[in-house]
Write a structure and sequence with these properties.
mainly alpha; binds flavin-adenine dinucleotide; 146 residues
Length: 146
């Protein structure tokens, strides 16, 4: 969003994104690919399953209702790829996209072009690399429950 806004305000803009060329992922960050949207699709599947299992309480007979987990996961991925897409937004706003996971904002490193590296010279850098979960010592995610 910041890149799009910067481009709309007239700045020549580039985005460096490690997932840019990862098959099945791409631009969009956690919300689109791992967070908000896929999890809401999976919650919807859980709600539908629960409603179908309790439908007889309302006089609706169902049988053979079960969760198809790979199917539900696939649906979550499909929801993420609906719409015009972030790549389209980048093209539309003439934003250059670079795929890299080891981007450096070091002035010396960015002033020369070395083998396989692309140097972007810029006055402004916005770092928006998100966050990673941190386990609490007494409460680890995915740890066995007692
Ligand atoms: C399971 C889950 C469910 C969620 N549900 C909701 C919800 O319902 N509603 C809501 O408002 N929020 C939700 N969130 C939170 C939401 O996803 C985040 O708040 C949001 O994605 C943060 O955006 P961000 O741009 O700061 O970081 P991110 O979306 O993580 O984007 C950071 C980007 O930087 C890239 N990057 C990181 N390091 C580098 C590097 N070294 N070089 C190049 N690129 C790099 C990453 O690949 C990523 O694309 C959820 C999160 C999770 C995990």
């Amino acid at each position: 969003m910041a890149a799009i806004r910067a481009a709309q305000l007239g700045l020549r803009t580039a985005v460096v994104e490690k997932d840019a060329k990862v098959p099945g992922v791409g631009l969009g960050g956690s919300c689109l690919h791992r967070g908000c949207i896929p999890t809401k699709a999976m919650l919807k599947a859980a709600t539908l399953l629960d409603e179908a299992k309790h439908a007889d309480e309302f006089g609706v007979k169902t049988s053979g209702v079960e969760l198809d987990f790979p199917g539900s996961r696939g649906s979550a991925t499909r929801w993420s790829s609906r719409g015009p897409g972030v790549e389209y937004q980048m093209k539309k706003n003439r934003i250059d996209v670079h795929a890299a996971s080891d981007a450096s904002t070091d002035r010396a490193a960015s002033s020369s072009r070395r083998g396989g590296e692309t140097a972007l010279e810029t006055r402004n850098v916005l770092v928006a690399t998100g966050s990673v979960p941190r386990d609490l010592p007494f409460l680890r995610a995915d740890a066995p429950r007692s």
